Amino acid sequence: MTNIVFRSAVAVFTLLLCSSAQAQIYRCLDANGRPLYTDTKVGKCQLIDTGYSSPPAASKPIPAPRSAGGSGASSPAPVSTPSSFPRVDNVVQRARDDERREILGDELRIEESKLSELKKVFNNGEPERQGNERNYAKYQERVASMREEINRTERNIEALRREIGNIR
To answer: What is the model's pTM?
Structure first.
């Protein structure tokens, strides 16, 4: 049953997205009561509003952007915040920023201690072999995964420092 509904939905979306789609699409029920979508009215069908009253505007030419002062470069339109957008008091925002800075600082300290521990165990690329690593390839695989973990932790530290620097 869901397969039929899915196919019906795909058919509707296909009809809606086609550039040659008609402005009228009907939803009908077949003999088994399943929905059928068509562009011709057959029996008792319900008209579906597609929002298209004419062919899509994609075929119309797009006007060239206006140049500012003949220099060829146009300045972007000023971005304005809607009047209904909620405002936050400076004191509240400063408190939020301080809390965020504190949380990021805690995360940074955790990542830095993790990095120092990883580097200590890594031992400049020659970590101590474990008892289950009789095969040298297994040892090399562990060393490679340790190197990846160190690189990932260093990237996390860089990202945290960037985020802390971006706080007002």
So the answer is: 0.47
